[in-house]
């Protein structure tokens, strides 16, 4: 079963949960406490790296939170119900509702909350790109690249749907009370209808109640001196003052609101009370945390009034560290006149052996649980702000361009190498053909074969066979004495004719005949064509002078029938050699096949 990691950075802590199926395998929450000369975002990155290193979470699919109070939330109606059509037109619709920023500067997503008469009610969410970029840089600084960046309220909704207290019918309010953020969901008949997230300062209250340590400074929230924080506190003070005064006066809805400085506001209070000092509101944590609960109650009534009109709440469920404050469930149950209880995560955290960690997870892990479910693919609802230039790329996708470049270079090198090998093979094939052609010509010339004679493909085998046959012939095979060497005689006569230096000499026949007679004489004849009679005499003289074996010759001449040249036939006589069989020594001279077989004549 696939496991997922949920990462929530809020409420002054880095919270990480690993969920497999419906069970939490790992949970850890570390407060963000910057060290000396360390920025808060660096402290977040340090804690995040340490958690992932301690629990060996590298490689797990992860989902991270984006706080809803940093986004723009709008409710609108579109004239169709198909989510595909809504997705294609949502950016154009959003331009009519986002007046504070350009559509090009935000990432837009939506969730469908209602459908009626061919129309759909959607919850439009828009996050500024600089906020998304900063949030992703915060996670990536800790060595984590989350696949999904979802709203914290949607993560709370996803985990709420997995609880046994989930109601498919009726109207339910779910509230997650943190040290600096309160998240609220209104669910009607199993469908999310409205969400709300706002900032509170409950750290001191929870610290006093020994629920969570109060953070020195919460990274990613509005500072105490910021305008937004002051305005929220002033409106909360106004709500409390109105509640203590018995409600707003008749017609107060038409009275304009003026934003004044703190001194002017105090002066106005003094003037209204006749110079008497204004009554102080209950301090945070006093009277069971009523100031915090009053603020949550006022926000819930103001945000969900239109949806709750004409209907009541069937249940209120609480989670987060604030839900453990004394009297929390009783307060909301009494004011909403319905059942109120804490969300039960016991079945999810029962696999955690350390019960103190399990208790911490049950109190403050709701958002991290929902994110982990989203990363594991077990949640069917949610938003994702990893779009456009922030689109998540898996490991292979990150290496896609380098791999493509490397593959192109490798393919190019292989192509060039293949072309080189092909050219080399072509060159070698041409050389082989040339050598074979020359070899065929040499074999045909050597063995006096005509063009019609078919030679085997392996000329070496043919030459070896012929060489063996000649060797057997020259060494006395077939009844011929071994001292008869014809090639030596032919070479001797040919060299002598060459030294005659007769131009236009055409050798017609060189014939050697050997008869084994008692007198041991050998005979032969040479036939050639010459231009004139003097050429015949030159050949005769050259043979007698330069041949080592010819003893005598007899010329016969006659006119050539086909030309005006002289045809001459020289009959040769030579004495066969006698080998010194006693010593095995042969006379001087060179032969083609083995030692000389003829004894040169004595000049």
Structure notes:
The protein contains 17 helices and 17 strands. By secondary structure, it is α+β, with helices and mostly antiparallel strands. The chain folds into 3 domains: 1-162 and 350-392, Nucleotidyltransferase, domain 5, CATH 3.30.420; 165-216 and 224-343, 2-Layer Sandwich (Nucleotidyltransferase, domain 5); 464-575, 2-Layer Sandwich (Alpha-Beta Plaits). A hairpin with a 2-residue loop joins strand 10 and strand 11 (191-199). The longest helix has 47 residues, at 400-446. It is rod-shaped. The model is unreliable at 209-229, 250-256, 273-288, 516-520 and 577-598 (pLDDT under 50).
What would the keywords be for this entry?
22% strand; five-stranded mixed sheet; Nucleotidyltransferase, domain 5; 603 residues; 3 domains; Alpha-Beta Plaits; alpha+beta; single chain
CATH architecture of the largest domain: 2-Layer Sandwich
What is CATH's topology name of the largest domain?
Nucleotidyltransferase, domain 5
The count of helical stretches stands at 17
CATH class of the largest domain: Alpha Beta
Structural class call reads: alpha+beta
Query: Which sheet architecture does the biggest sheet show?
Result: 5 strands, mixed
**Fraction in beta strands:** 15-25%
Low-confidence runs (pLDDT<50, min 5 residues)?
209-229, 250-256, 273-288, 516-520, 577-598
